[in-house]
From TrEMBL, chain A:
Cellular component GO terms held in the UniProt record: plasma membrane
Start and end residues of each ABC transmembrane type-1 domain: 74-285
Protein name: Multiple sugar transport system permease protein
Membrane-protein topology: Multi-pass membrane protein
The species this protein was found in: Anoxybacteroides tepidamans
UniProt GO BP: transmembrane transport
Keyword entries, A-Z: Cell membrane, Membrane, Sugar transport, Transmembrane, Transmembrane helix, Transport
TrEMBL record, chain B:
Organism listed in the record: Anoxybacteroides tepidamans
CDD domains: TM_PBP2
UniProt KW Disulfide bond keyword: no
Compartment list: Cell membrane
UniProt protein name: Multiple sugar transport system permease protein
Membrane topology: Multi-pass membrane protein
Length: 292, 277
């Protein structure tokens, strides 16, 4: 009877390499690499997604893109999310640090601060529609503490809407940075703090000279991720406002152009531009890390 | 003097923690309150006021039945089970051969998997959509399943990292006993990967449960809706019935809460391991 284990290890090795890699490799090529190349190809055509014919139009889509500042105006929206990430990381770092030391009800605080990250994006979007609506949660709280004069049309005023949405994003993602920082801080050996205390270091010194340096890499990595995250924001503004009132992001714009208006060619050109930006940012990150 | 400063620091510490917890919980608690209120009550009471009747499940029934959330839960469960099983098997298989064997092209293959993580999926949707369409998968559950299997390479990463901690001498001693490579994978590697598998299940499971983009774009058909898309549909017709939407939100959150409370430790570990590449 044929048995796999009777074959020589050399033959086995060949069979198992092919058998174990064929499906993952086919999936990888089909869904990670082919889309990149076909997107580059589409970006040089006028294809609408339905018609059988794709006309090669050279760089026309790119010319359209770069000669209409409108298409790039949406990057201004990304800036709100980018700056929000700084606040998000600062908060995460603060809470991770104090929860690394002795605190009452540590697990409760840890759980509550992290929990929002696990929630469904649509649920979060709706929750914050309720939170920001006129006479909603935020307005009621502000009135209750005597700050009623500060009430705004949180999602109606184009000057404020992106701050509200970026704030929602901080609420959602802070827990993720927090739990990563907490993990990194907990891997610092306890005797380092003890030694520092003997040398007369206070909590601030311990944070500044022990915790911060050991988190440097992770903080750096998260900042770089924040850039690509900020330019590819989609879910929260799309669910909450659909991109209305000046809250449109680059990805919402791309999705609308490609799928709503059937301009696959132009949408692809925008995808290519976005991809190039993200790759440049990532390459800068990689080379920055190599120096260390 | 030192004592006063210390006491102030403690007050500040707890004040900020309580404030943080308040901000994290407030939006959720308000939705919880609203989900038990009647329509009239919702309009006339403050969002911060608890409901008059904590046993008013009418909104939940309406959300569940009219929003067709049952089919959402069923579709989400099917997609979750197949995608996670597939990602665990395929991920551990490819990680096993990439980690244990050196062969012509193995470096290239490893590089191809690493490079793919640099391509953010959201940028290439325009083209991915055409592929799904040409494969005839548009508006089927397989569209989501195959995309979760093929584009999210995080499972391969987690397994590759974990394989570093499984000594090759285990493989070698099994080979002395005449075990085939397949037996080594099945009987040694796979069982020892268990902690990594738990991480993959948690990280992927939560990502898939919460994903909105993929089902929204690839499975718009009504009976294929998942939790995210079922909930999203409340937006139009229930525009002003926030108490029903609130019940829908709670229905989407409850499974997450149960999983979180029962698997807390694994979830914390999973996310701090799975993310630092």
């Amino acid at each position: 009877m044929f048995k796999f284990s009777n074959l020589s290890y050399e033959t086995q090795k060949r069979i198992i390499i092919v058998a174990f890699s064929i499906i993952p490799v086919v999936l990888l090529i089909t869904f990670a690499y082919v889309p990149v190349f076909s997107m580059i190809f589409y970006s040089f055509t006028d294809w609408n997604g339905i018609s059988k014919q794709k006309h090669f139009i050279g760089l026309e889509n790119y010319v359209t893109l770069f000669t209409n500042p409108e298409y790039f105006k949406v990057f201004k929206v990304s800036m709100y999310y980018f700056f929000a990430t700084f606040i998000q990381m600062g908060l995460a770092l603060y809470f991770a640090t104090i929860l690394s030391f002795k605190v009452r009800m540590k697990n409760f605080f840890k759980g509550v601060l992290f929990f929002p990250y696990l929630l469904n994006g649509v649920a979060i979007g709706f929750m914050f529609l309720i939170f920001f609506r006129p006479d909603g949660t935020l307005d009621t709280v502000l009135k209750a503490i005597g700050l009623g004069a500060f009430i705004q049309k949180w999602l109606g005023n184009p000057d404020i809407i992106n701050i509200s949405l970026a704030g929602t994003s901080v609420w959602r993602y802070m827990g993720f940075n927090f739990i990563i920082f907490l993990g990194a801080i907990s891997s610092i050996p306890k005797d380092v703090y003890e030694a520092a205390e003997i040398d007369g270091a206070n909590r601030w010194h311990q944070f500044r000279y022990i915790i911060l340096p050991s988190l440097k890499r992770i903080v750096q990595l998260n900042f770089i991720l924040a850039i690509s995250g900020a330019i590819s924001v989609f879910e929260i503004p799309y669910i909450m406002t659909g991109g209305a009132n000046g809250s449109e992001t680059f990805v919402i714009q791309t999705v609308n152009i490609a799928f709503k208006y059937g301009k696959i060619g132009l949408g692809s050109a925008m995808g290519v531009v976005l991809l190039i930006i993200v790759i440049i940012v990532t390459l800068i990150q990689r080379s920055a890390f190599k120096e260390e | 003097m030192y004592k006063v400063k210390y006491a102030l620091a403690t007050v500040f510490k707890y004040a900020t923690l309580l404030f943080g917890a308040f901000v994290a919980l407030l939006p959720i608690v308000v939705v919880l309150f609203a989900s038990f209120k009647t329509g009239k009550e919702y309009m006339s009471t403050s969002p911060l006021a608890p409901p008059e009747n904590w046993l008013n499940f009418e909104n939940y029934v309406r959300a569940f039945v009219e929003g067709n959330m049952l089919s959402g839960f069923i579709n989400t469960t099917i997609i979750l089970l197949i995608s996670i099983t597939g990602a665990t098997l395929l991920g551990s298989m490819i990680a096993y051969i990439l980690h244990r064997f050196k062969f012509r092209g193995s470096k290239l293959l490893l590089g191809a998997f690493l490079l793919a993580t640099l391509i953010p999926g959201v940028t290439t949707q325009v083209a991915t959509f055409q592929i799904i369409n040409e494969l005839g998968l548009f508006n089927t559950r397989w569209a989501a399943i195959i995309l979760y299997l093929g584009t999210d390479i995080i499972a391969v990463y987690i397994f590759l990292q974990f394989l570093d901690t499984i000594s090759v001498s285990l493989d070698e001693s099994a080979m002395l006993d005449g075990a085939s490579y397949f037996t080594i994978y099945r009987k040694i590697i796979l069982p020892l990967l268990k902690p990594a598998i738990v991480t993959v299940i948690i990280v992927k499971g939560i990502n898939i449960y919460n994903d909105f983009y993929t089902p929204f774009l690839y499975m718009p058909k009504a009976d294929l809706q998942v939790i995210s898309t079922a909930l999203f549909k409340f937006k139009g017709p229930y525009g002003s019935q926030w108490e029903v939407i609130s019940a829908g939100i709670m229905l989407a959150i409850i499974p997450t809460l149960i999983v979180f409370l029962s698997l807390q430790k694994y979830i914390y570990n999973g996310f701090s391991q799975g993310s630092v590449k």
